[in-house]
């Protein structure tokens, strides 16, 4: 069976019908999400707007409220959009509510495109890229798609090289073709425009360790699946062997 992979860029690119969608946000939303799951989070609820995030917090008072605008933690939130901060927190069984500029918005858009087919929507940073590619290969191997398989990759930053580098890496992994290697993707992430504010010692509001998390390849443990839900979209971690 052949696999047709398209790469789009931005929050709301036109998305054709596909058998699977992967929304990529390396800096930082889905690196942050992966660290929260690594540290025991049960689920991540997605909010497109700040007032929706506060409304979710009122409905789920025990949840951890996280997110950013202009890459800065929002007043009244527990956390920013920082993988380094998440790495210090025990999320055991807890819910994280997340609102971010690029990754969350692109995911909400992809969920709408995927709904008519009931196609899976994965979210990923580079840290989870191997697991995301493997999830798609397993869909194919399990024969769940019987004709030509169509996969849509969404590099969520409208202009960023970090998400495009990750998209090219995932495409190569899915197809088993030559593509950028881990070191090349790491370098493109570190050199991306979005990374520079974090790496600038004169901008202490930004944490350089966030880019260390975002640029590092993690173990192939679980894929992150975004799902529609009656009370709002959410992300769960799906063990690869499940
Ligand atoms: O907070 C972030 O890392 C970004 C905003 S920016 O690209 O760094 O300005 O939001 P995200 O939705 O994680 O891309
Ligand atoms: Mg981003």
TrEMBL record:
Pfam families: 2-ph_phosp (PF04029). InterPro entries: ComB-like (IPR005238), ComB-like_sf (IPR036702). It comes from the Bacteria. It catalyses: (2R)-O-phospho-3-sulfolactate + H2O = (2R)-3-sulfolactate + phosphate. Keywords: Hydrolase, Magnesium. GO terms for molecular function: 2-phosphosulfolactate phosphatase activity; magnesium ion binding; sulfopyruvate decarboxylase activity. Signal peptide: none annotated. Its cofactor is Mg(2+). Its EC number is 3.1.3.71. Belongs to the ComB family. This is Probable 2-phosphosulfolactate phosphatase. It comes from Bradymonas sediminis. The lineage of its organism: Bacteria, Deltaproteobacteria, Bradymonadales, Bradymonadaceae, Bradymonas.
């Amino acid at each position: 069976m052949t696999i047709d992979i398209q790469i789009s860029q931005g929050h709301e690119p036109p998305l054709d019908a596909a058998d699977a969608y992967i929304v990529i946000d390396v800096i930082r939303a889905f690196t942050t999400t992966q660290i929260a799951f690594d540290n025991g989070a049960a689920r991540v609820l997605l909010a497109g707007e700040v007032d929706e995030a506060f409304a979710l917090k009122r409905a789920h008072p025990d949840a951890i409220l996280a997110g950013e605008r202009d890459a800065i933690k929002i007043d009244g939130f527990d956390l920013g959009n920082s993988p380094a901060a998440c790495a210090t927190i025990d999320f055991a069984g807890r819910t994280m509510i997340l609102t971010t500029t690029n990754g969350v918005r692109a995911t909400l858009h992809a969920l709408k495109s995927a709904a008519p087919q009931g196609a899976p929507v994965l979210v990923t940073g580079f840290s989870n890229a191997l697991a995301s590619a493997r999830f798609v290969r397993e869909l194919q191997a399990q024969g769940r798609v019987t004709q030509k398989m169509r996969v849509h990759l969404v590099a969520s930053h409208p202009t960023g090289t970090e998400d495009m580098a990750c998209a090219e890496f995932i495409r190569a992994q899915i197809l088993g073709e030559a593509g950028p290697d881990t070191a090349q993707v790491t370098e493109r992430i570190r050199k991306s425009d979005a990374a520079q504010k974090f790496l600038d010692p004169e901008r202490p509001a930004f944490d350089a360790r966030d880019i260390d998390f975002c640029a590092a390849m993690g173990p192939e443990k679980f894929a992150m699946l975004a799902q529609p839900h009656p009370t709002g979209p959410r992300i769960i971690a799906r063990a690869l062997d499940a």
